[in-house]
Fold these 2 entries.
Entry 1:
Amino acid sequence: MDTSAEPEPVRYGDIVLIYIDERRRYIVRVEEGRVFGSDKGILRLDELVGRPYGSRVKLSTGVEALVLRPLLDDLLSLAYRRRSQVIYPKDLGFIIYIADIAPGKRVLEAGIGSGFLASAVASRLRPGGRLYSYEIRKDMAEIARRNLELAGLLDVVEIKVADVRSGVEEKSLDACLLDMPDPWNALNTAYNALKPSARLVVFVPTVNQVEKTVVALRRHGGFTDIHAVELLLREYQVKEGSVRPSTRMIGHTGYIVYARRV
Ligand SMILES: C[S@@+](CC[C@H](N)C(=O)[O-])C[C@H]1O[C@@H](n2cnc3c(N)ncnc32)[C@H](O)[C@@H]1O
């Protein structure tokens, strides 16, 4: 393990993860005079300033906590506001891979909803990439804007309050991601916006929508290599001598349909 890099210290204004245990994980902004409170005790946030990330700190009760730099996963699961159905990590990972999201790419998305997919995508577009997110509802666009700002990703994303079905001004895009109730009505938009060979990826929560999307893609004629998949993720409970799947699991999120523009 390379330990040569100087550990980064916590500064005023930082957003930190206070990790007490698996169920007690909190995202807080370090501000002068601010006190963090939990059922395990309180902590004066001034005490964190100057300590390296990864440090152990003691709450007022003597219970230990860790101060960690939050990953995007922590922000999405603990700090983001949810006003819509959101895309879960298991699906986010596959969407990013299949859409070939990478630095410098230009991507279209609709609708932005709470900005979960937008954040996962935007965080992989730097340097030079851009996400154009169309959202029909102004209030949803505002929630997404607030969430993206928290993650420091707003500069990568252009949020447009508009109906994606009416077309978009962007052209020659590298990928198009649709998470909306009637993606089959946005196929012309996707076709006109995408570069030939680029992927269209659609996320829908019901099999009825999968059928309508795939039938519409075939009829459209501008897409090929059409697939519909569902991903299942099972967490494991690992105890020495007793390793088995957890009793609980997220049973359903949605289906992913993907195709290529010809
Ligand atoms: C399920 S949410 C998207 C959630 C988002 N993918 C996330 O991970 O947070 C669907 C969004 O699509 C928006 N929407 C529905 N029809 C639309 C359209 N024609 N054009 C743009 N946005 C649309 C809705 O207002 C809603 O915010």
Note: Residues 84-87, 110-111, 113-117, 134-137, 140, 163-165, 179-181 surround S-adenosylmethionine (CB under 6 Å).
Entry 2:
Amino acid sequence: MYINLIGPYPYSKFALVENFWETGYGMPSFTLLGEKVIRFPFILYTSYPHELLHNWWGNSVYVDYEKGNWCEGLTAYMADHLMKEQQGKGADYRRNALQQYTNHVQDYNDFPIAEFRSRNNPAEAAIGYGKVMMANHMLRKEFGDENFINAYRKFYKEYKFKNASFDDIRKCFEDVVGADLRAFFHQWIIRKGAPEIELQSASVARRGNMYEIDFTLSQNQKEDLFDLRIPIAVYLENDNEVGLETIKFKERTRNYKLSFDKRPVRITVDPMFDVFRRLGLDEVPTTLSQAFGSRDAVLVLPKKSKSIKEYKAMADMWQQSQQVQGKTLEVAYDKDMDEIPQDKAVWILGYENKFAGYVNIIEKYKGYLLPETITRFENLNKSGAVVFVVPNPNNKEMPVCFIGSRIKKAIPGLVRKLPHYGKYGYLGFEGEAPTNVLKGGLPVINSPLTHEFKYDGANPVTNAILLPGKPLAE
Ligand SMILES: [Zn+2]
């Protein structure tokens, strides 16, 4: 794949060598991986392609460290990101990179990509790997896959066994696309910082037999403005396809108008996380690990359930393991509570729980999940076990997690299995084992970059789902 993508492999062999230290080193013509990591089956889609690709980037085109390390972010983009892209999960990978930057990089520890040498902490990783990865993604989005690939083929050919810098990458792209890219490289490589984008307002009006959306974007970062190209997704009533437009945006605030012949249902700014930016708090989906990671939580047991013994055992087990980690998990019965607390994480156990309907996920997420997923969910609700976690409707910073099982004997298995599914937002299980048959992340609704249009107070239906794009290589 890499020979086709970039150019001939520069060495006569490639060896995977087991190291007695737990390393992940990419050396010329071999990689040194630790004995633990080598055994994992997922290594074939994570460290292994990354270290293999370092034979092109780093071990034959060398890094001119004085001018910034371009090699890790590019390797992450063409290996780690590409593997995810091939599984249809490129947007998740990018969102996570933006999240890392948002969480770990603030004014005091931010620095330009041009000053990145190597990773010693999460902030350096978020810039040297994540931001460089995103800069490459933006180049690809702006100029297309073919130009992107040709520019790097040229870069490889010209700089094999030589030192190279971001400037040399820029010149290769300029030659291939025939444009001056100094402003782009200055903005992302020489300058530090990230834009913060807000959808300030959005409305829709009827003009003849067309519908016109009017919306305003702003850049809220304190520092200078960025010159951006931002994808906008518009979901239309009774339509299976999402309308995608790319707009230019380099002002503090700007108003846009787009027209459609069907009623717009929803607009989302940068839905696939294609732009390097600081994320808003509300843009991140809730996951099970947030519920497990909460310092303070309450678990609500269903007093009247016929599986109360099993649920109680689950509660006791988790209470213990949370205590060991210095966290508190309070266990309570539904009949003793008037309402769900808003200042801590909440676990609601059992279909018979009087708070089971506190978050009606099917109703709420119908327009966001594939119809097959909804049907699957409905069926598992009747005969299997279902787990999901959503933001508390009364305090979006706190997760509410529901666990319900129609099979009594499946509950002990859930106790063991759930901690391993931390990155998911919903899960479905079958049988007594129980066997996981459904998993995924619930999309963020009420994102500050999404607006739902109402007509006479109601939000119309759309069948459109945004599908992942074609990967850079297959
Ligand atoms: Zn690397």
Note: The longest helix spans residues 122-143.
